[in-house]
Amino acid sequence: MSDETIMQQSVPPSHLNLRPLRVLIIGAGIAGPSVAYWLTRLPPPFKCEITIAERHPTLRDAGQQIDIRGPGIKVMQQMGIDEQVRACAVDEPGVLVLNRKGKKVAFFAAGGIEKKKGGETKKNESKAFSAEWEVMRNDLVNVLYDLTKDREGVKYQFEKEFVAMGYEGHPLGPEKGVKVWFKQDLFNSETYDLVIGADGVGSKVRGWIRGSGEDKDDVFDAVDMAMAFFTIPGKEDDPKEFTWCHLPGRRLIMTRHEKPEYLRVIFAVVGDHPELREAHKNGSVQQQKEAWAKLFEPDRNESWQVARYLDGLFNSTEANDWWAHDLAQVKMKKWSWAERAVLVGDAGYCPTPATGMGTTLAFVGPYILGGEIARACKKVMAEGKWDGNPWSNTILPEALEGYESQLRPLVTEIHSLNIKKFMRLFLPEKAWQIGLFHAMARFIKKTPIDNIPALGKEGKKAWRLPDYSEVFTPEG
Ligand SMILES: Cc1cc2nc3c(=O)[nH]c(=O)nc-3n(C[C@H](O)[C@H](O)[C@H](O)COP(=O)(O)OP(=O)(O)OC[C@H]3O[C@@H](n4cnc5c(N)ncnc54)[C@H](O)[C@@H]3O)c2cc1C
């Protein structure tokens, strides 16, 4: 259907009481609030009543630097939050590589974001290892919450943890939909027309979508690597750069120092570590910390600042922001179920933090889902298909199909990065291999991420962000 056809609208018959779509979004991270935002811009008379359920008592605004790239930046700009995000963007000079004694080996200048120098705006074009935009996760989560919390039709409910859902018949009449149960009230269910799982890499909603028979394959593709993020008190002479120190045994310590009072520490390890895996799966935060500390304890007095990091991990309140995971790509054949439930962000297509693409997809996926719903609404108006319930007859089936077909090529491209192989090269086993890596590091100009056409120059091959400006209601 051409955009011109979309613009020729019929009006709903006066007898039709088109009620708002009851939408439940699980998770108030990045993808959840983003999809809520786009659903508030459907063309009238279509509207949603949106509940965002977050399992934590408050916004889960922990986390360290996260990257926003290419199409993610474009979406953020269309949401009108680029100025707020720019204001809290992290201004790192670049990447500093140290040897285990703390001596400088290489430096890569930061690229992308514009910086003001002497009144002039300059952009550094160097790309390797630096994202275009880097922000602290907590700042971004708060910007998105502020953007959405007072919008008409949106309500947040905290301390509300999704546990299960069940199907209530199809095609849905006005009262039918999906029944959902929450941990806080297992004896009562709530009914929604559409459930959107934005509940991160460990998504519970995903289990129900897989259980529906759409996709029985194992979707959790481990990349043989684990990462742990925590904060300790900063010191005046901590490096301002994103600093890396490789240790033998495929281990890496990274630090970031965007605020004088904090030092962000990241531990990474490649290979099979059953104790770590078990702690991530079933252990408490304390057990996870102990499992990680065991891996780095042998270097306590041998390597750059290890003693300080381990002491800070157990003794500083700052380290309560602990977040650790076995890295895995989430690969699903289909992201939706029976036109009643759909996944966005890490829940559906986590590419792993090692790619730095999770947040970009958590912006792009919700934009496309919202855009496809808006487009299908316009189509109903253009074709005058008001019979029955347009939400279930036309809009949701078409929109969910459009979401799959528009987004799938980008996700496939990002998932095709061979993270496992790259990380084995990037985190060498032996000390002499680390020496070799250091010698070569000086000549690295690009990472595999920089080769994704969607992030590079707009060539023939490049994936393009769909344009929904004709179907979304303009702001204000
Ligand atoms: C606490 C935390 C810290 C992080 N730190 C980093 C980091 O330092 N670096 C990095 O690269 N990435 C980090 N990430 C991951 C990063 O935010 C995502 O990869 C990316 O931004 C995609 O966002 P998302 O909204 O899909 O998922 P997430 O940002 O993971 O958000 C998911 C949300 O869903 C909520 N949730 C989960 N299960 C349920 C449930 N059953 N019921 C209700 N709510 C639920 C979670 O509490 C969370 O608020 C972190 C994620 C979290 C949750």
From TrEMBL:
Transmembrane portions of the chain: 21-39
Pfam family, one: FAD_binding_3
Molecular function GO terms recorded: FAD binding; oxidoreductase activity
All residue ranges annotated as the FAD-binding domain in the record: 22-367
Keyword Cell cycle appears in the UniProt entry: no
Keywords: FAD, Flavoprotein, Membrane, Oxidoreductase, Transmembrane, Transmembrane helix
Protein name stated in the entry: FAD-binding domain-containing protein
Organism annotation: Chaetomium thermophilum (strain DSM 1495 / CBS 144.50 / IMI 039719)
Organism phylogeny: Eukaryota, Fungi, Dikarya, Ascomycota, Pezizomycotina
